[in-house]
Amino acid sequence: MDAVQALEAVEIRPLSGGELPRVEVDLPRYPGKHRERLEAQRRDECLYLIAWAGLDPAGHLNLRLRGRKLSDRARRAGAAQIEDLAVASDHRRRGIGTRLMRRAQAEAAARGFHALGLGVDVHNIPARRLYAQEGYEEAGFGEFVVSYPYLDEDGLERQANETCTYLVKRWS
User: pTM of the entire structure?
Assistant: First the structure.
């Protein structure tokens, strides 16, 4: 299978309860994070998109639509918000992140949004490059610090502290 066929074989869909155990194993996150997003999806606060390469979860993106976890920056921009876009290391550089972002935009537009926002670490050059290629621009809210626990590649709990900026993509 060549790279084009492999990309076409990737399916992006909202997480279902039956898929949760597989996603928890193959896309490790802080304990309970996937379940929390699935429950928020059931309350229509977000849409938790999973990219599947065959039977394997290859990446994910949480599209925050409403609720207490929608950031003030997203509210100020009138935007839905992309949270935690990630692609498993053995599936990177195949366009999966771009496809997840485009699906998130389509889902946001279908729900009446005309903007999509996200926070990005000011030092994450590859992510910033991807977002710029997709039409995201500085929102003008300045820099802010985000702190959160995460599990590293060895499964050890760590604390991240990122200096971020907020980007927005608008459409009509």
Answer: 0.90
